[in-house]
Amino acid sequence: MLVVLLEEPPSDHHRNVLALARDDDDEVSILAEPTRSKRHRVAAKKSSGWSQLCQRLSTSAEVRYYALLAQLLHKEHARLDPRQSRVLTQNVPSLPPPPSRPPSSSSHHHQPMEEASSVVVSSSSSSAPSAPPSRPSVDLPPLPPLDFSPSKHRKRPRSMSLSSYETWTLDFPSIRPGMSVRVVRAERTASNAVAHYVMHVVDLHTKVMWECRKRFRELYAFRREIKTMCRNSPYGEELTYLFEHLAFPKRSVVGQTSGARILRRRLVLETFLRNVASLSPDTPLHVAVVGRLQRELCSAAFITHLANESVDVDTTRCSPHDLVELKWLAFDLFRNLNSCCTIEGDTCQRFLHVFRNRCAVVQDAPPSGQQELARQALQDLRNVTTQIQHYVLDTLGPQYRRAISTAMCDSHTMEQVDEAIDECVLVTVEDAVMVPLQEQITFLVELTIDVDVEAALTRSMEHDLYGKPQSFFGIPDALQSDVNFGKACYHLSMMEDRVLPHEKLHELVLSANEIFAACGDARGGTASMGNPTSTMMNADDFLPIHIYAVVHSNLKRPYFAKEFLSAMIHPNKMLGETGYFLTMFEAALKYVSESM
């Protein structure tokens, strides 16, 4: 494993990047991100192994304090309990021994106890093998509390008025209201001389995702261009944080950029692009910078196509999520949660740094304890995401709820209004927190999976059950589909193309609704969409059809999808139809595993 440190550190307040690269240069796994300045790196050379470990795994003063306190407690317990000293020594083999100290008069009274401990350790280690510990020998560093207090560089966000948003296409015809950017990987050309950064871009409202490739020199020129725009604008002072507070790597003078340099640039590029994409169109400069970014990510014709598709969606669908009031709320939340100069955005980005270091702790832990640590880290991620969502809901301006209630009061109840607002906040918070952590989440979920069980399950679905007729799964003749439940299989296959938990769960619900619709057509009636307790179809009728759809959905990793959704689903979702259909999905995979 290669540990690479960014060579251009910013100020002490901001974080450098530590990229943990795999053997394949094209696959990147950014699992740790310490905060170390030049002064800290010079001091680290003179520090012990424990201090270096703390500095590498820490992102704040609080975490370093608790890590140091834990080390002192471990050393004290090791002196009192020799067995714990042996366990610590066995589980941390990579740490160097403490430096030997010259004998002095002040340390004579400690020598008998240390010698006695060493004798007990050596005698016990030579006699009987030690019992395995009941819990992981390495604990995750404690999560610092979420800080939502304002400061000099953290301010309350300014809201965009509904009237301004409604005239968006007239005021800003060349830009889209929000694009979520993620740098997913770096690829080299066939000659291995040029590297391209592959970015996934998602339109905020239409949810259209596309892929673009950019060389680093193109992104470097883009940053230099907007820096010139800010220098020549009277509003440029408002955007100085993009260049002073956000790290950005320098261009390499070497003809062929090394793989290590390519890997460590990814995270800082993604952070910079997401901050630029979250700019509010308050001034002509902001509008020009956002428009320049979007033209860098796609063509002007494609932006026009997205605008036309958004209009078509508004006129053909009746979903409450297509209301302009909810889109207004989603855009304001997107700006607030992805900007480093707002309270919510800075808090989210601080948590991203901390969570990446927790993943590094899991990666460095002994294999016997990685699974439990991974489950704990995923649970902490879900809890923190829920806390951020609750904070956003509690501090939501009254103008949003008032406007959304007015727009939905004629055809929806107040409970449905609250559910629509909660869903909008959940979607935006998950995008701000889980999209940058997609690699870390995948890494942790894979640690919780039994590789042999997953391989056997996939092999059984592909070779033993795929292609079997509907009657083989126990589907009654009256409920069999002439098109083999094609739409239900399609939505299940789309689960692997979605990134966020709510997107995957949405495809799962759509698949179930297609099953109800197909069975309603087969019986010559209308199906009750998403109602598992209807008299038309009960759970005994639904489960065989769902098993058939899962087997024929061509899911490459169904077991991974199950574990991902079980770990990342919002607690409130388990109580409704989403939780019901997730239970059916787990039951379908259990049936497949039992039929092997």
UniProtKB/TrEMBL annotation:
PROSITE patterns: VPS9. CDD domains: PX_domain. One of its GO terms (molecular function) is phosphatidylinositol binding. It comes from the Eukaryota. One of its GO terms (cellular component) is cytosol. This is VPS9 domain-containing protein. Residues 116-129 have a biased composition (Low complexity). The lineage of its organism: Eukaryota, Sar, Stramenopiles, Oomycota, Saprolegniomycetes. It comes from Aphanomyces astaci. Residues 451-596 form the VPS9 domain. One of its GO terms (biological process) is vesicle-mediated transport. Residues 81-160 are annotated as: Disordered. Residues 130-147 have a biased composition (Pro residues).
